[in-house]
């Protein structure tokens, strides 16, 4: 099945919402996302409109989707830009201008087909194209028990940085930071 990998457009919020909620209903969601389906489903349309518009243009974020020949969105990767001197979602200081990959999802029946690699390729190409200032690296967090995702990230070039972040939802568990240095 051929997919078109492309950035979202600002007016595609309904499809972005559907894909996000589908990802949060996935069996891996509890260790893959900080969000829940219940919270996502309760958000107003204005939230999804603003979120999608913000990921469609500008420097702050870009969401890439895999659109099947039937028009169904089958996967997504979002790259957020974290500027030096700001703070991240954990309220920690950002010490280098970097990308942060979030919202990685491919529908179950299409995993292992190369779709995730294509999404990451698009996301990383966009990240490396940014200038003034250029991104020094791209990072992501992966749950310590999500071994399949860890293996995938290593295979495509991410490396475990050694940084561990305790999870608010389960203080006995940690997210691992993986980084991809600028080529």
Describe the 3D structure.
- The model has no long low-confidence stretch (mean pLDDT 95).
- This protein has a seven-stranded mixed beta sheet with strand order 1-2-3-4-5-7-6, sandwiched between helices.
- Helix 1 (13-25) crosses helix 4 (45-54).
- It has one domain (4-136): Aminopeptidase (3-Layer(aba) Sandwich).
- A hairpin with a 7-residue loop joins strand 6 and strand 7 (174-181).
- The chain is α+β, with helices and mostly antiparallel strands and 183 residues long.
- It is built from six helices and seven strands.
- Keywords: Acyltransferase, Transferase.
- It is an enzyme of class 2 (transferase).
- InterPro entries: Acyl_CoA_acyltransferase (IPR016181), Bact_Acetyltransf (IPR050832), GNAT_dom (IPR000182).
- Residues 17-183 form the N-acetyltransferase domain.
Tell me the structural class.
alpha+beta
Radius of gyration (Å): 16 Å
User: Within the largest sheet, what's the order of strands?
Assistant: 1-2-3-4-5-7-6
CATH architecture annotation name: 3-Layer(aba) Sandwich
Mean pLDDT: 95
CATH class: Alpha Beta
Order of helices and strands: EHHHHEEEHEHEE
The helicity comes to 25-40%
Number of domains: 1
Keywords:
7-stranded mixed sheet, globular, 29% strand, 183 residues, Aminopeptidase, alpha+beta
Brief overview, please?
With 183 residues, the chain is of the alpha+beta class. Helix content is 31%, strand content 29%. Keywords: Acyltransferase, Transferase.
